[in-house]
Amino acid sequence: MKRIVKFLYTILKSRRLRVIKKILNPEGIILDVGCQDLYFYNHLKSKHEITLVDYYSKNKDIQKEDIQHLSYEDNSFDIVLAQEVLEHVLNPIQAILELKRVVKKQLIITIPNEPFFSLFRCLIWEKQHLWALTPKILKYYLGTPIYEKKIILKRYYVGVWNYV
Predict the structure, then answer these.
(1) C-alpha separations of 128 from 25, 27, 51, 77, 164 in Å
(2) Fewest CB within a 10 Å sphere: which of 77, 79, 82, 125?
(3) Under DSSP, is residue 146 helix (H, G, I), strand (E, B) or coil?
(4) Which of 12, 30, 52 lies closest to 107 in space, CA to CA?
């Protein structure tokens, strides 16, 4: 079962990377929140300056930061990436507001797009998911995105907000 889950996550990351590369501003300093496996960093570092942060930093290149209380000034980063992070924090609304505070140009957020109780959740339970966030919640706090897409059988949501 672990192999199947790992395979599914590899497909998910690959698909998200393709979508994000298409919509990502070509210039700017990126804040990548919740980047423990460095997957996106390794694919984007040749074209972007990237600051890596995670609450549980297991790598010397990743700064320890709490997404709910980021230590950065307002508008510190041109681009902020928060992928599959918000459903793991105690206060996702505070985290959303912090992401909006530190971004200058482009905010990209991905979340699982599924009801809290679904057949898939019963088969592969994400023990670390504290919340089932929806695109509607993101839109309430961030406004209408300039781009949104549901990927992989509409189970994952990608939203992009521009603040230029």
Answers:
(1) 31, 33, 24, 28, 34
(2) 125
(3) coil
(4) 30
